[in-house]
Design goal:
Blueprint (H helix, E strand, L loop, with lengths): L2 H20 L13 H14 L11 H14 L3 H16 L9 H19 L39 H19 L4 H12 L8 E3 L4 E3 L8 H30 L6 H29 L18 H7 L1 H17 L4 H12 L4 H14 L1 H13 L11 E3 L7 H4 L1 E3 L10 H19 L5 H12 L14 H26 L2 H11 L5 H15 L8 H13 L8 H6 E5 L8 H4 E5 L11 H37 L8 H50 L3 H18 L7 H35 L6 H13 L12 H36 L6 H10 L4 H9 L1
Antiparallel strand pairs: 1-2, 3-4, 5-6
Length: about 850
């Protein structure tokens, strides 16, 4: 634009301002062009004319006219609204040369001027329309200049294109300097110090608020204060993480830190090292001057607060994660710590997932090394009790059951419970082979397992994220080591042979041995317990072994069989304290523990008493058989005595048959339905066992089956008591039967009608010496007296036998009535064995 045109334009603006000022009121006077009010109004007009603000609405003259008219009406100026409508109609109808084409622009300008004047008049103590603008230069007409002040967000900008950006940027810089007394470069440097846990000149750590703050006395814009506060969160998180690392490393090697905690500290320290590198780069950039916006194209290697917030966005996320880890892992250690970090790694954000995975790789390294060492070497390298397997010092026989156990509190969540149990068993098998079996073959099996699993036995071969490799190694190692352990137990220590020996001798399965032992030991065990010597019983045991097929067993088996005398009290006989025991020795005592041998002892005592009752009935039969034949000698007695004798003999024989039927069927049930069936099942389970736990479980099941079926279980206590009462009654019957036939033998001797065998003579003489026969009873009286005493003796014996029979019948009925209600099906089958003819069922029906 030419200089003359600019002058003309300035003159028009001045004339317009003068006219507007003269229209303030009817009595207004012309304004002096040199007055302050004129200069303020001129500046206001120049600001409006040089403004580049465009209306936000579309250029619609009718719409803006309607808006002005509605505004006037809403403010109670209806007359002004009508006048404006009439003027606008005339203004819009003007077309052609000399008319205004941009009608919308004129109306919009007038509306903005009106609104701006109203807002300026409403300000309190406002000296002018634009109180914050400086006075124009005297040469305002030379060219349009730019004011350094702002009003309502609009700046006076010259229409010179070269000065548009410079003026705007300069105005922004001046405004920023007025609002802040601290430069952004210093704030950036202080923030970087805070991110390293160091107090800066302005940004310092406040103990009250527990964080880095910019004091209120430091005047900065609110936006700057906000961004500084957000960036300083990183410094607070850094202090938290750094403090945890320092505290943990100062306490190490304390037990509450451990190797896993140390690994976590090392991993966090590595992350902080990367963080330090970033801060070093940022600090180098912060040394460069922050250019003006107009200079940004020429210089990009500088650092502002906004740029710093972008740089620190990712480190802030990582630092927050590390701070959360520090909070959660502060009281944890070992596997519990690794499990907690693993749960936090289950995140959908790839950044967080990869970061946590990188940490877990370092943290889980000691844990996986413990697993590798335990599975392949059987070594429990757990100084700080961090592993999920706990070991304790125990005796060799308790090593498998009590030496090691699973600590679920230290079990990481990425290792399942089944896998942990397999890991526990594998290392336990190695220790069992090494300590109890004195075997070294497990090392070769471990190397083969590592090779088959595709790993090595060296350190660091396992790591986090290699779950399939871990499971493969554990599975292969468990199979090979367990198989080697079972081979050692079966072949070297002959577990099956020892189980069979226990069945033969403690469970009385070797019939000829048991029968011979019972025959030769009967007289000794009939004596009081306190008069019996264990050495003599041991000699009798040796004799029974040498006189039976037991002599062909291995000497190692026979050496383990011993006589055991249980504690006795006053009145006990040898039968009450005698038992056999079997010495399992290491490592078989892992299976045949003291509690297990105590159960075998219970079974032996039951079977031994059953055999004793059977032997007693056999002895009674041996006594009854020859006397039944020689009873024909009593035909010369009186008829009533003969009938009495025959009735008594018949009663004794019938009662013996009932008892023998019960004992024989019970013994057959125990020997075949209980012992043999349980042994067969145990043999099959031994063949199918895959590890020592399976073998222990199979043997426990075998023993429990015998106890339950033999009426020795907890649920059969009442039945067991009833059975032992029956046994005592049968033994009492044996003593009565002996008395009966000894009395008959004495009577036969007195009458002289038959000769006695030498054995019977000796027995009679022994009873005479013992005083069991009444002095001068039968031998000193005549025939009449003999008949009287015989009748009285037979009557008493008949009464005793009737009493025993009645008691036996009552006890047997009570015993049989309990069998159908037993839960074990084999006990119900015992009822069928004892009452297969339904004799007892019909008898009970008759009574009811």
């Amino acid at each position: 634009m030419e200089e003359d045109d600019q002058q003309k334009l300035m003159d028009l603006v001045k004339e317009l301002v003068v006219r507007l000022l003269c229209q303030k009121g009817p009595n207004s006077v012309p304004q002096d062009p040199g007055s302050p009010q004129f200069h303020a109004s001129l500046r206001y007009a120049l600001r409006i004319l040089s403004s580049h603000l465009a209306p936000s609405a579309a250029a619609d003259a009718d719409a803006i006219a309607e808006s002005i008219k509605r505004h006037l009406s809403n403010h109670g100026k209806s007359s002004h609204a009508l006048a404006f409508a009439d003027l606008y109609t005339k203004f819009a109808s003007k077309t052609g040369p000399g008319s205004v084409n941009n009608k919308f622009g004129v109306l919009h300008l007038l509306k903005i001027i009106s609104e701006d004047r109203i807002s300026a008049w409403n300000e309190v103590n406002s000296p002018s329309l634009l109180p914050n603008l400086e006075c124009l230069d005297a040469e305002v007409g030379d060219r349009w200049r730019v004011s350094h002040e702002r009003d309502n967000g609009v700046s006076l900008v010259s229409k010179d294109a070269e000065s548009f950006r410079k003026v705007a940027f300069k105005e922004y810089a001046d405004l920023a300097k007025e609002e802040s007394e601290v430069s952004e470069e210093l704030l950036v440097r202080d923030v970087l110090y805070a991110c390293q846990g160091i107090d800066g000149k302005y940004v310092k750590f406040g103990t009250i608020v527990d964080g880095y703050i910019l004091p209120d006395m430091v005047r900065v814009p609110r936006a700057t204060r906000t961004i500084v506060r957000k960036l300083c969160e990183l410094g607070w998180l850094f202090r938290k993480v750094k403090g945890y690392i320092s505290e943990s490393m100062d306490r190490f090697p304390a037990e509450d830190v451990g190797t896993v905690g140390q690994a976590l500290c090392a991993a966090l320290q590595d992350e902080l090292s990367e963080y330090y590198k970033l801060l070093a780069i940022l600090e180098a950039q912060s040394m460069n001057r922050i250019p003006l916006v107009s200079e940004s194209a020429n210089s990009g290697n500088y650092l502002t607060l906004r740029r710093l917030s972008v740089w620190l966005a990712e480190p802030l996320v990582k630092m927050r994660l590390m701070a959360v880890l520090v909070d959660k892992c502060h009281v944890l250690r070992g596997g519990a710590m690794a499990g907690t970090i693993h749960l936090m790694a289950q995140h959908g954000d790839p950044l967080i997932h990869e970061f946590m995975k990188r940490l877990l790789t370092r943290v889980c390294s000691p844990l996986f090394e413990m697993v590798r060492s335990w599975v392949l070497e059987g070594e429990l390298e757990d100084i700080f009790a961090e592993f999920f397997i706990l070991g304790q010092q125990v005796k060799a026989e308790s090593l498998w059951r009590e030496g090691y156990r699973l600590h679920t509190g230290m079990l990481p969540s990425f290792i399942s419970n089944s896998l942990a149990l397999k890991i526990l068993r594998t290392g336990k098998s190695i220790n069992f082979l090494r300590v109890c079996c004195e075997d070294r073959g497990w090392a070769e099996a471990a190397m083969e397992a590592a090779s088959a699993a595709g790993t090595t036995t060296r350190r660091g071969s396992l790591g986090y994220g290699e779950k399939e490799s871990l499971e493969s190694l554990v599975d292969v190692a468990a199979k090979r080591i367990d198989r080697h352990l079972l081979n050692v137990m079966y072949n070297r220590y002959k577990f099956k042979e020892h189980c069979l020996a226990i069945k033969r001798y403690l469970l009385l399965g070797q019939g000829d041995f048991v029968q011979y032992l019972m025959d030769i030991i009967w007289p000794e065990l009939s004596e009081p317990a306190n008069t019996i010597g264990s050495f003599k019983l041991a000699g009798l045991l040796e004799s029974a072994i040498r006189s039976s097929n037991a002599q062909y067993d291995e000497q190692d088996v026979l050496n383990r069989l011993r006589v055991k005398m249980m504690p006795h009290s006053a009145g006990d006989r040898g039968w009450d304290v005698f038992s056999l025991e079997y010495d399992p020795r290491v490592p078989l005592d892992t299976i045949f523990t003291e509690s297990v041998m105590a159960k075998y002892l219970r079974i032996f005592n039951f079977l031994w008493k059953l055999r004793r009752v059977e032997h007693a009935l056999i002895g009674a039969w041996k006594t009854m058989k020859p006397n039944c034949i020689t009873s024909q000698a009593f035909l010369k007695l009186q008829q009533d005595v003969k009938m009495q004798l025959l009735s008594t003999l018949r009663r004794c024989q019938v009662l013996w048959n009932e008892m023998n039927h019960f004992v024989t069927n019970l013994q057959d049930y125990i020997m075949f339905e209980v012992l043999e069936v349980s042994w067969l099942n145990f043999s099959l389970e031994m063949e199918a066992a895959k590890d020592l736990d399976d073998l222990l479980m199979a043997h426990e099941k075998y023993l429990s089956s015998i106890l339950e079926k033999s009426l020795l279980g907890e649920r059969s206590q009442s039945l067991h008591k009833s059975l032992f009462i029956l046994f005592d009654l049968i033994l009492r019957f044996r003593s009565h039967a002996d008395r009966l036939y000894e009395g008959i033998l004495e009577l036969q001797t007195r009458t002289g009608e038959s000769s006695l065998a030498s054995k019977d003579k000796n027995k009679l003489q022994r009873h005479k010496n013992d005083g069991t026969l009444e002095n001068g009873s039968w031998t000193t009286e005549g025939r009449k007296g003999l008949t009287h005493r015989a009748s009285e003796f037979l009557r008493n014996m008949k009464q005793d036998l009737d009493s025993i029979a009645k008691e036996y019948t009552s006890l047997l009925e009570g015993f049989l009535s309990q069998l159908p209600v037993q839960q074990h099906i084999d006990l119900k089958f015992l009822m069928f064995r004892l009452d297969f003819t339904e004799f007892y069922s019909r008898l009970s029906l008759k009574k009811t």
